[in-house]
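Q: I have 446 residues here and want to know how they pack in 3D. Can you give me a structure?
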Amino acid sequence: MPEPFTTNVDIANRALQHCGATRIISFQDDSKNASSVAFCYDKLRVAELRRNVWRFATRKVILRPIETNIYPSTQVPPLAPTMIFVPAVWSAENTYVIGSVVSYNGILYQANASVTTGVTPGNGVPWEQYFGPITVSCWSTTITFPLNWLVGTVYVQGNQVIAEDGNVYTATQTTVANDPVTDGGVNWIEGGPPTAPTTSFFAGELVYNPVASNPGIYISLQSGNTDLPGIWPAWVSTNIYKLNDQVIYQGVVYQSAQDMNVNNTPTGLGPWIFQPGSQTDFMTGLNWLQLGTATVQSLTLVYPVGTGPASQVSSRNVFMLPNGFLRQAPSDPKAGSQSYLGSPMGQLRYEDYEFENNFFTSATANPVMLRFVADIADILEMDPMFCEGLSARIATEIVEDLTQSEGKLQAIGAQYKEFMTEARVVNGIETGATEPPMDDYLECRL
């Protein structure tokens, strides 16, 4: 069975094979071959990724404009600023659930399945590179919501909680073990359902709750998400729960230990367990994952000049590019591919994005979908034809240093052009043609 490209050393050895040089075991080998390849590998990988809109490297992300206002006196309620996302460093002792984001060797990874202890990021499943936003928006400054009622927690007069019936209750006196739903009005006064949010979030968006003294960082797992982050839903016997879903039952939080978990009363054993002590991230609200050890840091903008906070509509808004951004890809490449009687219907419209530094600006104050080429480092995600072209590109840079042969340089250079041309042709067939933006002359007359 043919052996595919699986590691960066495979690409390096293919480059050395082009040169007729001895292969290496790792980039850390004590040899001229290893040091020559190690010096140029990542530099050329990124350059080749930027040269084309490769199908395997194309990603989408939802970005919100940066809000820089910090509690202006004229704003009621005050606006909370956009923050910078600081993922937790991966730990071999921790377990992770799907959606978790960690940092490892300077690269951000996201779990695409449940991860047991000791599974190092960078080896494919269950880890993939994270190419989401690196800004964290304020979830809401207009809604102050209480937390779930938990058995054993001491509440004093005035404390508010959300009980398992979904309503808000206010304590009338100090109480510790009285369930608000069955209390009969002795220790708790019912206040109806909590205020519903007016903003919905897309899958992959990051938010924080500015109300708590230690604000949680949450990642949305579903588009159209209006759930309250940080609030566990009450267990319902007829609901079907997935692995790692968390619910609250009789004031205790439980985690599903299996998929298709239905009509199993939580007990802490079997289908429902308590959250493992090694697990740092956990589900809340069914559609939110709380990144338990992630943090945020302040964002102070001195550039771009001439842009305002999202709350100010008189100037352009600034968006920070997502993690791993290399170049923009067409946002809607098939727009206008269907037309009525040959007329250019639904053509791709010009975007007002202005890319500068690590940002782009736009007149819109709404979330935008950005399609882009990502800095793919995982070889398992790369197309084999791209790997073959990259190996030839590396060979052209190291062949003279290793062999002092100009003839080999010319031969490998010709192979590079052939391999990359073939890779681009196949990539172009798979992605198809991009419709050009509609001409202004036609648009104003149709």
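Q: Anything worth noting?
A: The mean pLDDT is 88. The two ends are 58 Å apart (CA to CA).
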